[in-house]
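Protein modeling request. Please complete all fields; requests missing the sequence field cannot be processed.
Requester role: graduate student
Desired output: 3D structure, token encoding
Chains: 1
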Amino acid sequence: MSEVLVIGHRNPDTDAICSAIGYAEFKRRTGMPEAVAARCGDTNERIDFVLNTFGIPAPRFVANVAPTVRDVMQPRIMSVTPDTTAAKALGMMDEHNIRILPVLDAEQKCRGLLSLFKLSKFLFPAANRLVDSRRVLSSLDNLAATLQGQLLVAHEPDREEDLILMIGAMSLESFGSRLESVPSEKLAIVVGDRWDVQNLAIREGVRVVIVTGGLPVEAKTIEAAKRKQVSLIVSPHDTATTTSLCRAAVAVRHVLNETFLCFREHAPLASVREEATASGHQIFPVLDTTGKTVGILSKTDFLKTVSRKLILVDHNELSQAVHGADEVEVIEIVDHHRIGAMSTDQPILFRNEPVGSTSTIVADCFFREHVELPAPIAGLLLAGIVSDTLNLTSPTTTPRDAETLKQLEKISGVNARGFTEKLFASGSLLTLKPAPQAITTDCKEYVEKNATFSVAQIEEVGFDQFWKRKGDLLAALEAYRERHDYFFAALLVTDVTTQNSLLLVAGATAFTDLIDYPKVEPGIYELQQVVSRKKQLLPYLSHCLRRYVPAAK
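Delivered output (553 residues):
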């Protein structure tokens, strides 16, 4: 497969979603048709408001970009049903030069694998089991079809039964003696145009007479067969060929391997590789969530290269990236945050600029390259800017953000100020979400000074809802910290109307004691004129970490 996913960070905010959609559009318009906007987290009410306003669907949800079984499997399945004859299956194997076929039922569930090796053992028994060479396990319908013959008289032709093959190539007396050794209703007699043998077999009531060589059968013989309820088949082949083909009329359900190894289509390739290579199986059915077979995986498929690539927007740290990002190629990064610890195998386009929003950089790509910017995409980029800069009031705002916003207003026909009021009124996380969801909706993970921690942010109109739910939020924050074994977990709750914030921190007392902002209550601090996680809070927390580490030694 070949695709380039343009994707923001985990727990995406409005800017991450809007810049992913916008940059994917830019890449498609500049020669990368395989660029697809994606997300690795849920949208929220404000993001949904933006998408609905401009009539743009949410980016494709991708939880993990690591290569999966589906990426390398063979989606076109060459298979047989349980009722397919061995002869037909052998023909398919020969035509397509394959040695194993999956056996699928009407619901596409795998019943087993049909191998050329096991078929050969059935059709050509070992010397100590020559008695099996006379066994014909089939219905008369399948027998006639396998022989490409004509069923002149058919009595219960669809009934599957275990027959014994006997060739009428001896004197009539000897043939009569042999008939006495086997129950007549179990016999399938193969004979040429010897009418005496044919009629003796019919008089004795054998199950079926197979006349070889495509030779005509006398009318009185046909009438006699009808009276005795003896079925009659004419084979176009000679006696030797007819005899060998009869055993191949068996349905494959009787000769398949019922023990096999299968994998789910979305299983990470790395997790199944060892099990597959260590097994004695050569192919593996691939199943969807309902158990339906959707592909076949072979051992050679593990050698395939998965050509999925990533363009990261609004972040540049693997700790914030979609799961599996370290297993695929990152070809571009477009971001406005600090540069984290990330390395690549090849040089890449890395556009990192000190502006208030990634959407500002994406819009500039359109303007700089003189690429047409559709009005709905301009609206999305406008939403990304006003969301990340609180309509240009955040300290992260730059003159470029303001200039870009003016251009986007003209193209989209949207007034930024009026849109901002609607945007922040469109959904209060503290009203709509349970505390565990609210604290992770816009949450990022960081690693610094050998400490891993998280910083989340919630933007509200006023603090009324916060004070009603402060206890739940503090408890959820501590539970989140313990679950991920973070050094500390922080939550910045920002009032977009006053440009002030409240900071909640769950962590060791020795660290929280270093926070010198006014403490309102245990674990809650007042941060006047602090609204930016990136430019104001994160540098401050890093400073506290630097002070803490020496004290810990």
